[in-house]
Amino acid sequence: MIQSLSVDRPVGGEEVSEQLVSQARLVLGVAKILFENGQSTDQTVVTATRLARALDLDVTIIPRWGELQLVGSTGDGRALEAIAANPTGINMDRVAAASSLCDDLVESRRTADAAMPTLATIAARPPAPTWQFALAAAAAAVALAVIFGIQHASSAIIIFLSAGAGALLRRRLAPLSGNLFLQPFCASLLSGVVGALAVRYHLSSSLRLVAVCPCMVLVPGPHVLNGMMDLIRGRVALGASRLLYATLIIAAITAGLLLGFAFFGISLPVDPQAPPVPLWMDMLASGVAVAGYAIFFSMPPSMMAWPVAVGVVAHGVRWGALELGQGVTMGALLACVVVGIALTLIARRRHMPFAAIGFAAVVSMVPGVFIFRMASGLLLVGADPTGSSELLADAIGNGITATTIIFAMSLGLIVPKLIIDQLDGGSFGKGSPR
């Protein structure tokens, strides 16, 4: 991993000391693990800069899509060091381990020389076992179906089996192809075929949750939220790259779902009416969904209780906002504000990476269903241009709703954290910044 580092010597031909190169590699190695496995860009930079300062390096970390650069003073010249890094993965076990290693280095519990082998071990940590991955995807899909108003046990069983089979298919395809979009496309195609068969044999309601919910667990919520947070923090190029990557994955999921429907002449309703769900059922299902996503993201078991507890409360807030007629966007905003405040404080006190516990708590609110409905509506309009303008309006409305929910969620997560960080003395105050 670290061997791909390239070093430009300072102006004037002065050699960079081996110790300095080794320290720079350590800083970039920690940053690479965080950056590639789902940590927010801001916290990646904070953690890496904190480590650099502990090693007496006067450097700046510059994150870009595809690489991390370290720029700083070295004697009489300037040095630029870079390492390839693509933020396409989610593995919160690696994020937590790299953050803990950084704490040990900063607090002198471990030497830099001893840390390099540990860093390689952390980077090679495997994701959640396949059986856990499949079970988590299946349970989360059923939980989302409950939140959206599923009414029949037979549909829940089909969703469980379809989502689990899709997860197994993804793991099977992973070693066969490095294409980032093949896995979600094939899993969603399977869900679309299963959902279409369920509709054909009258095993699904008009909500088409049998097909939609297994696809919703495929939506790359952390990449969407990380991209939005980068844009809010002014990292326009990186934020746009993250959002483009997430958009391409969502496009692959949507294409697979709708193609599976098209094989059997089935369409996804653009504006179905979901039945109301009791508060206790909504909160219980949300707890199952958050736990499923936590396993999905390879979160350490010791951290799982916090996002589950906060996620349940947040869904209760969202449910209350909907009951008061505030709409799904305001409900998502209020819920994410609760998560942003609670988990920022918990992350600081418990020395946990914010992304590791924050994304799992809210990612079930990412509006994948609205995106799927928008795409289906646009296809229906394209197939029959003389059709009702109401269908087009509904499709556009779903797209606007999805966009505003994502923006509201991003604001709800990041603004409380920014305020708390500022009140606590900024990102480089006392204690471990998370």
From TrEMBL:
Keywords for the protein's UniProt record, in alphabetical order: Cell membrane, Membrane, Transmembrane, Transmembrane helix
Record membrane topology: Multi-pass membrane protein
Domain Threonine/serine exporter-like N-terminal: 26-263
Domain Threonine/Serine exporter ThrE: 283-419
InterPro entries: ThrE-like_N, ThrE_2, ThrE_Dicarb/AminoAcid_Exp
Membrane spanning residue stretches: 133-150, 180-203, 209-231, 243-266, 327-347, 354-375, 395-415
Name under which the protein is recorded: Threonine/serine exporter family protein
Any one GO molecular function term: transmembrane transporter activity
GO biological process: succinate transport
Taxonomy, superkingdom: Bacteria
Location relative to the cell: Cell membrane
Keyword Zinc included in the entry's annotation: no
UniProt organism field: Acidisoma cellulosilyticum
Similarity section: Belongs to the ThrE exporter (TC 2.A.79) family.
Pfam families linked to this entry: ThrE, ThrE_2
Lineage summary: Bacteria, Pseudomonadati, Pseudomonadota, Alphaproteobacteria, Acetobacterales
One GO CC annotation: plasma membrane
